[in-house]
Amino acid sequence: MTADYRTINRASWDERAPAHAASPDYALDKFAADPAYVSHVVRFDLPRLGDVRGLRGVHLQCHIGTDTISLSRLGARMTGLDFSPASVAEARTLAKRLGDPTDFVESDVYAAADVLPNEAYDLVFTGIGALCWLPSVDRWASTVARLLKPGGRLFIREGHPVLWSLDDTRKEDDLLVVRFPYFETAEPLVWDEGGTYVATDAVFTQNETHSWNHGLGEIVTALLAHGLRITALEEHDSVPWDGLPGRMVRGDDEEWRLAEGRERVPLSYTLQAVKMGE
């Protein structure tokens, strides 16, 4: 019997969570040293986030909680949710270390509205590298809609589905080659890759993962179908990690961009939507 994708992916994230917490790329020591420090991912979107003071928010697929705690430091009353018990443990340890009131809940994202109060949140936040682990973007949009109050806001910055479709191993020329699906597929892409996306000396054994792409139109359509109104959609020429190794350079803003012809493709996007209602 084939293992469920959640079991397979959870094993990978559980093994990597401690290495991520120890990596300088997640900057936990900077969080401890500076009470005003916020993650690069959140810092990038500060002009778009606006004032979140007093908002009740939930961060879906929060991993080790650095973005969640960053939103808390900006004044939101945050809850983080993740399906990896090791990630949640690291997030709780970080919050305790920092004296931050953010709470963290262990749950699959599709079950979030079953374990958290419905229509209770002013803000649902989803960060980089989250949607690709979900087989159905429609189910995700349904979860978002159930959690948000009428008038509440979804805020998501994600890797662009165009980026996920590119061959990230090609380095011999400047061509960008579409190799993988842009649209959501019934079957996952199955990967067997060691390593991780941050600097670490850790060696991993749980290297199989299952992922899916979701076209930008599919994401927008799913949100509209579940009663959300798109209020902003901005595509960016950068991502916060080396998404195409050997082809990118890191800027002073800690974002990675194509070294040549960066205007050719969008690499990430920020989308905002508001739940319709009273």
UniProtKB/TrEMBL annotation:
<dbReference type="GO" id="GO:0032259">
    <property type="term" value="P:methylation"/>
</dbReference>
<dbReference type="InterPro" id="IPR029063">
    <property type="entry name" value="SAM-dependent_MTases_sf"/>
</dbReference>
<keyword id="KW-0489">Methyltransferase</keyword>
<feature type="domain" description="Methyltransferase type 12">
    <location>
        <begin position="59"/>
        <end position="154"/>
    </location>
</feature>
<keyword id="KW-0808">Transferase</keyword>
<dbReference type="Pfam" id="PF08242">
    <property type="entry name" value="Methyltransf_12"/>
</dbReference>
<dbReference type="InterPro" id="IPR013217">
    <property type="entry name" value="Methyltransf_12"/>
</dbReference>
<dbReference type="GO" id="GO:0008168">
    <property type="term" value="F:methyltransferase activity"/>
</dbReference>
<protein>
    <submittedName>
        <fullName>Methyltransferase</fullName>
    </submittedName>
</protein>
